[in-house]
Design a protein that fits this description.
Number of helices: 10
Order of helices and strands: HEHEHEEEHEHEHEEHHHH
Radius of gyration: 24 Å
Distance between the termini: 66 Å
Largest sheet: 5 strands, antiparallel
Helix content: 40-55%
Shape: globular
Length: 296
């Protein structure tokens, strides 16, 4: 009798534990269903800026949103493919970052293009009298034979070294210096302050073009590529899980003026950790930046 009573008690306890476990699993699933993770590389200001804006907007749709900082493109795209992050909003998948998507297209969902004039360039400060890539090779000594680049994992670096430089004979006259976006900008700042010649990898949209007066060098051979879109890329299954967020991303658009003001505010007017404040201030000043922008 005691054995049966003990057995019954143990069975009831086990059943209760299973029920609680079931509730916990359901609660976790529910929490996951309402939580979106946006990945970004801190030095890639287009992805960071648009990512924090989308964070604000997705939260206004009712989601919990986490921003996850990643170190480089390969890690970011792998995390997105595997579902460790849900969204990356700085995807140049048409050319510049196409290698990170190639062969695993089915792992991603393209939610839309928020900017359609993305370009990679080689640029000089506006006081430099060279205007074209064709003029660089004969003038290599003026630049100490160096093109100052950014992170070596950036698709722009590979394209510049393997396509852009050989097309204009720069590979025999220049070396492409890998560094970081921050280091490249520090070099630009120093050069502008002293009036020295410098040529750097740059792109559009990018706040530094206006702040430092960087001018794109003409590309008569068209090897740096025609403008491409910057996409909001998601992990497979995102639309099914977050249909209203996916719909919002599909309609999300920014022009040069709108993006540059937000990017400049987030990069130069607010500190790291104050991105939400930068977005709030920008929305207050630009409530009509694009149709569908959600304000308080």
């Amino acid at each position: 009798m005691q054995f049966r009573t003990l057995t019954s008690a143990l069975a009831l306890t086990a059943a209760a534990a299973l029920a609680l476990a079931g509730c916990s699993a359901e609660d976790a699933a529910d929490a996951s269903a309402d939580s979106i993770t946006i990945g970004y590389v801190p030095s890639w200001s287009d992805g960071k800026t648009s990512g924090f804006l989308l964070k604000d907007q997705f939260e206004k749709l009712g989601y919990d949103v986490e921003m996850q900082e990643l170190t480089e493109a390969a890690v970011l795209y792998t995390s997105l493919a595997e579902g460790s992050i849900d969204v990356f909003s700085g995807a140049w998948t048409e050319r510049t970052q196409a290698e990170y998507v190639a062969g695993r297209e089915d792992d991603f969902e393209d939610l839309g293009t928020w900017y359609d004039n993305g370009t990679i360039t080689l640029s000089v400060p506006d006081y430099v009298d060279i205007t074209s890539l064709e003029e660089l090779a004969p003038s290599a000594d003026r630049f100490d034979g160096k093109i100052i680049g950014i992170e070596p994992s950036a698709g722009q670096m590979k394209h510049t070294e393997e396509v852009g430089m050989p097309a204009y004979g720069l590979d025999s006259e220049f070396s492409l210096v890998s560094s970081s976006t921050a280091a490249m900008l520090a070099s630009v700042s120093d050069a502008v302050e002293t009036g020295d010649d410098i040529v750097v990898t740059s792109w559009r949209p990018f706040w530094a073009n206006e702040v430092y007066g960087l001018r794109d060098l003409e590309d008569p051979k068209g090897v740096m590529g025609t403008p491409e879109g910057i996409h909001v890329l998601a992990t497979q299954g995102f639309t099914e899980r977050f249909s209203d967020a996916a719909d919002y991303a599909a309609d999300f658009k920014l022009n040069d003026e709108a993006f540059s003001t937000l990017e400049n505010a987030m990069t130069n007017e607010y500190e790291v950790g104050e991105e939400a404040e930068a977005v709030d201030a920008w929305i207050d000043e630009h409530p009509d930046a694009f149709p569908g922008l959600l304000a308080e």
